Amino acid sequence: MPTNATLSRYIPILAWGRHYQRSDLTADLLAGAVVAIMLVPQGVAYAMLAGLPPQVGLYASILPLIMYGIFGTSRTLGVGPVAIVSILVASSVGELAEMGTADYVQLALTLAFLVGVIQVGMGLLRVGFLVNFLSHPVLAGFVNGAALIIGFSQLGYLLGIDIPRMEFAETVAYAVTHASEINFVTLAIGALSIGVLLYFKVVLGGQLERAGVPSAIAIPLTKSAPLLIVLLGTTAVFLFDLHDAVGVDIVGAVPAGLPPLTMPTMELDTWSSLLPTAFIISFVGFVESISIAKSLARKRRRRVHANQELVALGISNLSAAVTGGYSVTGSFSRSVVNYDAGAKTGMASIITAVIIAFTVLFLTPLFYYLPKSLLAAIIMVAVFGLIDIKTFQFSWKYNKEDAFSMIITFFAVLFLGIEKGVLVGVGTALLLFILHTSRPHIAILGRLPNRDIYLNVARYEVTTCDRVLAIRIDQSLYFANIAYLENAVYQLRADCPRMQHFIMSCTAVNSIDTSALETLESLQTSLAEVGITFHLTALKGPVQDRLKRIGFIKRFGVDHVHKTTHEAMVFLGCA
Amino acid sequence: MPTNATLSRYIPILAWGRHYQRSDLTADLLAGAVVAIMLVPQGVAYAMLAGLPPQVGLYASILPLIMYGIFGTSRTLGVGPVAIVSILVASSVGELAEMGTADYVQLALTLAFLVGVIQVGMGLLRVGFLVNFLSHPVLAGFVNGAALIIGFSQLGYLLGIDIPRMEFAETVAYAVTHASEINFVTLAIGALSIGVLLYFKVVLGGQLERAGVPSAIAIPLTKSAPLLIVLLGTTAVFLFDLHDAVGVDIVGAVPAGLPPLTMPTMELDTWSSLLPTAFIISFVGFVESISIAKSLARKRRRRVHANQELVALGISNLSAAVTGGYSVTGSFSRSVVNYDAGAKTGMASIITAVIIAFTVLFLTPLFYYLPKSLLAAIIMVAVFGLIDIKTFQFSWKYNKEDAFSMIITFFAVLFLGIEKGVLVGVGTALLLFILHTSRPHIAILGRLPNRDIYLNVARYEVTTCDRVLAIRIDQSLYFANIAYLENAVYQLRADCPRMQHFIMSCTAVNSIDTSALETLESLQTSLAEVGITFHLTALKGPVQDRLKRIGFIKRFGVDHVHKTTHEAMVFLGCA
Question: Counting beta carbons within 10 angstroms of the beta carbon of residue A404, is it exposed (0 to 12), middle (13 to 18) or buried (19 or more)?
Answer without folding.
Answer: middle
